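lol forgot to send this yesterday, sorry. struct tokens for the thing we talked abt
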């Protein structure tokens, strides 16, 4: 691929929108556990984030059904913490939620991660990256693995107990690090997210999972078929509403629009951002940095 075929190196993930039948319950979970704060509110919707910057948009949709585990849609939203200490604090906050759904841990070599499910069943990853100079690359792919992390040992080693006692909120530079989707098949995902949208492939697990990024990150997005092989276009359900990707400027936005249109993807352009669906009706928005609050 040439430079013009790729998303710019500075591409990043923006807010993720989730639809919920119980808005107050989900707001409480993400503020209490993940340490997010209210950023904005309007009838039927709350924006949560840090330092005035939105990470999650929660919209109330009481008439929608929940998704099936085998549907295309969200696998998890991954919130990136800047340090192991900040991640340890988030893990402790999560552990203090009664009935918390803990889904496991993963030392991925490039990062350390802890997995949960929110009260609606949406997957949530909390993670911190290891330094980039410790990532191992070969032939354009980054080495990632999944090894067990002992949660108690991690917290004992990294939690700043003094700071934790004075603040229960996520640090100002926490953000959406990546989004992992359920899709129907990997070749179609590659054709869309790499060939059309312009991410670079960074890892794959045979025909079961694909990892993609911009700028040499280990992955900004991933797609798997572990629960959803053969899934078609998803219905409008609770769970994932929209994934936002941020690009540096209008030129990058225009280049992406041209790539998508050339491959027959229907793109809605409101003059500020572009919106389109992937082949499974997962809604994606591309927005320049300057328009993301």
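and heres what i got for the seq, position by position
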């Amino acid at each position: 691929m040439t430079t013009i075929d790729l998303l710019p190196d500075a591409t990043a993930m923006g807010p993720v929108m989730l639809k919920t039948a119980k808005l107050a319950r989900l707001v409480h979970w993400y503020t209490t556990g993940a340490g997010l704060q209210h950023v904005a509110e309007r009838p039927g919707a709350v924006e949560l984030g840090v330092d005035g910057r939105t990470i999650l948009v929660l919209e109330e949709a009481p008439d929608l059904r929940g998704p099936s585990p085998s549907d295309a849609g969200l696998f998890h939203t991954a919130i990136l913490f800047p340090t192991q200490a900040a991640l340890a604090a988030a893990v402790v906050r999560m552990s203090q939620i009664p009935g918390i759904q803990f889904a496991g841990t993963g030392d991925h070599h490039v990062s350390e991660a802890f997995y949960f499910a929110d009260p609606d069943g949406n997957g949530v990853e909390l993670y911190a990256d290891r330094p980039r100079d410790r990532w191992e690359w070969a032939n354009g792919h980054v080495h990632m693995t999944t090894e067990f992390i002992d949660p108690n040992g991690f917290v004992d080693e990294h939690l700043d107990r003094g700071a934790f006692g004075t603040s229960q909120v996520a640090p100002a530079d926490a953000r959406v690090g990546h989004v992992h989707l359920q899709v129907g098949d990997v070749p179609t995902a590659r054709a869309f997210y790499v060939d059309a949208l312009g991410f670079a492939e960074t890892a794959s697990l045979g025909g079961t999972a694909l990892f993609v990024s911009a700028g040499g990150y280990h992955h900004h997005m991933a797609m798997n078929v572990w629960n959803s092989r053969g899934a078609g276009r998803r219905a409008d359900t609770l769970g994932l509403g929209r994934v936002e990707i941020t690009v540096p400027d209008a030129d990058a936005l225009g280049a992406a629009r041209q790539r998508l249109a050339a491959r027959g993807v229907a793109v809605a352009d409101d003059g500020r951002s572009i919106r389109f669906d992937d082949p499974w009706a997962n809604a994606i928005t591309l927005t320049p940095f300057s328009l993301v609050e």
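The mean pLDDT is 96. anyway ping me if u want another try
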